[in-house]
Design brief:
18 strands; binds flavin-adenine dinucleotide; 18 helices; single chain; 547 residues; alpha+beta; eight-stranded mixed sheet; globular
């Protein structure tokens, strides 16, 4: 395979942006924009999708990577919302049996907490029932059970706990979003990262969006019947710039996570109630543990982790786990920081307890404008967003040639079994994969689906294709080649942080010094390798590039 994949793939999309008239232009390639584009493209609409940076490089790469039914909204008795989110979770688990997986939440209960342990356990049962008993049932945890099963949990202040199920994204949120972008491309969507929408005006019954290709520098003019604004925390700003009035708006809440060495061997999420009374998680993320999160009102989307944020997270975890020594800032391998775009009525936002603002989404069409905005939402609810956008686009007069076509989900189980069988016959999970956190074949299937058959073919042709390129991670040469061809990797950070989670598992300075980095860049960028590598090396040191 040549390294010309990404430039060619992206250039073809960018060229089409100016040449074609689209049914729908989607602004913003986070989860909401990605599912909108994937659903519309699969159902036959002419769709364009642009993001001013990389796909999923904003809120959708900073989440807790949980697919959850919103157990905490039971406290505010939002039973309808919990039921809806649980069903959305179940649907994702069913559609993505490898990439969205049930996981147990091992929840500690502190003596004297505002709700008693049995009441919370009853809540967990209600949660399970609201989720149609789809997952494994909850169970109570005595202190003795907890001491045996999760010895890292500090028991001094606890009277026990309970365990329940939700789900999680083993490859992380940004990779999950990328799957939808790739699906949109497969159905003919003109999708391009690093294309910024500068402003849209209505001309002769269509939208004309001025945009800029931030890679090539050219100005673009994109014509479309409808515009879907999926700019997340920036959606209000983009609407304001285009003179669009809406009934909803966003308020923003910052949340951070810290990545540290694996704290517990178990494959569970440890859940606690933090000092502020909110649920606080210790989540497995690859070879690391992800701890968080916080919930701080902010008035702008461009935020970074502060010393206070770090102290809050470290302090809470040090109180709740029995560690050989307390965690300090020096233990932080990487950080995550994003703002939740929370939807409120145009005039509202301050009336409710901040932490109890629920994470619903709203899809609003501005009258007579052919302009749709997606407010709020969660990764968990993404399939509903895709469906609702299709319905809204049809209501606005854009016919979808294949209105009932499925647009999401992994390939059939029979294909997966065939792939895993072939991989086994080739000895892919043999000595080469020993010591890896999971069999290579499972990871390849989860990440690439049917494209993974091509990886086997590459390995059959040349066994060196099965060698890892980077010291820091298990990614094989053939995977990098596939990524170069099909995954629109423009900057090295796109690969290290979003197509993979390497930048969350390995300290930035260690990645920089990885002897395989040069070769990885050569595979990913061909002639542009030196420049891309230099750009990455010139970036900020340490875990936090925002502060
Ligand atoms: C700390 C935290 C934890 C969370 N945990 C979970 C969780 O565990 N489970 C869950 O389901 N949800 C979770 N969420 C919520 C979820 O992450 C967000 O609701 C979701 O990612 C928002 O996606 P989005 O597409 O609306 O916005 P974004 O992902 O922010 O995407 C908006 C995109 O628009 C682009 N853009 C902006 N302006 C322009 C322009 N002018 N031209 C082109 N592109 C533009 C941006 O570059 C960006 O990529 C969490 C959120 C946070 C902050």
């Amino acid at each position: 395979m040549s390294a010309a994949g990404t430039p060619a793939l992206r250039a073809a999309s960018v060229e089409r942006l100016s040449r074609s008239t689209f049914d729908v232009l989607v602004l913003g390639g986070g989860i909401n924009g990605a599912v909108s584009a994937a659903a519309l493209a699969a159902r036959g609409a002419r769709v364009a999708l642009v993001d001013r940076a990389d796909f999923a490089s904003a809120t959708s790469q900073e989440s807790s990577c949980l697919v959850w039914g919103g157990i905490k909204y039971l406290e505010t008795m939002e039973l309808g919302l919990v039921r809806k989110l649980c069903l959305a979770r179940n649907q994702l688990i069913r559609a993505y049996p490898s990439a969205v997986r049930e996981i147990r939440f091992y929840t500690s209960h502190t003596r004297g907490f505002r709700h008693g342990r049995w009441k919370l356990l009853a809540g967990a049962w209600l949660y399970w029932l609201l989720g149609s008993a789809f997952t494994r049932p909850p169970r109570p945890l005595s202190r003795a059970t907890m001491a045996r099963e999760e010895p890292a949990v500090a028991l001094d202040l606890l009277d026990g706990g309970f365990e329940y199920s939700d789900a999680w994204l083993p490859d992380g949120d940004a990779r999950f979003v990328w799957g939808f972008v790739r699906a949109a491309l497969d159905h003919g969507c003109a999708a391009a990262n690093y294309v910024e929408a500068l402003g849209s005006v209505r001309q002769g019954g269509e939208w004309v969006t001025e945009a800029k290709d931030l890679v090539g520098g050219e100005a673009l003019r994109i014509r479309s019947r409808l515009v879907v604004n999926a700019c997340g925390p920036w959606a209000d700003r983009v609407n304001g710039r285009d003179g669009i009035q809406t009934e909803h708006r966003h308020v923003l809440s910052k949340g951070i996570h810290l990545l540290v060495e694996r704290l517990t061997p178990g494959g569970r999420v440890l859940a606690f109630f933090a000092d502020d009374g909110r649920l606080f998680f210790v989540i497995p993320l690859g070879s690391r543990t992800c701890i968080g999160t916080t919930d701080t009102p902010v008035d702008r989307a461009e935020v970074g982790v502060t010393a206070e944020d770090r102290a809050f997270v470290l302090d809470n975890i040090n109180k709740r786990l029995r560690l050989p020594r307390p965690l300090t800032e020096a233990d932080v391998v990487a950080e995550r920081c994003g703002v939740r775009p929370l939807v409120v009525g145009a005039a509202g936002g301050g009336g409710r307890d901040w932490m109890q603002l629920s994470r619903k989404h709203a899809i609003e069409t501005s009258p007579g404008e052919g302009r749709v905005t997606i407010f709020g939402g969660k990764l968990t609810d993404c399939l509903n967003v895709g469906e609702e956008i299709c319905a809204e686009v049809q209501r606005l007069g854009v016919g979808l040639p294949f209105p009932a076509r499925g647009w999401y989900g992994e390939p059939p189980a029979a294909l997966r079994d065939e792939f895993l069988h072939q991989a086994r016959l080739m000895g892919l999970d043999g000595p080469a994969g020993a010591g890896a956190p999971e069999p290579t074949s499972l990871r390849l299937w989860r990440r690439y689906g049917t494209e993974a058959f091509g990886l086997l073919e590459a390995i059959r042709r040349d066994r060196r294709a099965a060698q890892p390129v980077l010291r820091s991670g298990e990614f094989l040469r053939c995977e990098l080649e596939l990524s170069a061809q099909r995954e629109m990797v423009v900057e090295l950070e796109d690969f290290l942080r979003r197509r993979t989670e390497l930048a969350q598992e390995v300290r930035r300075d260690d990645l920089r010094q990885d002897p395989g980095l040069q070769e990885a860049c050569a595979i990913l960028f061909g002639e542009g390798a030196a420049a891309r590598r230099a750009a990455y090396l010139a970036g900020p040191s340490g875990p936090d590039r925002f502060t």
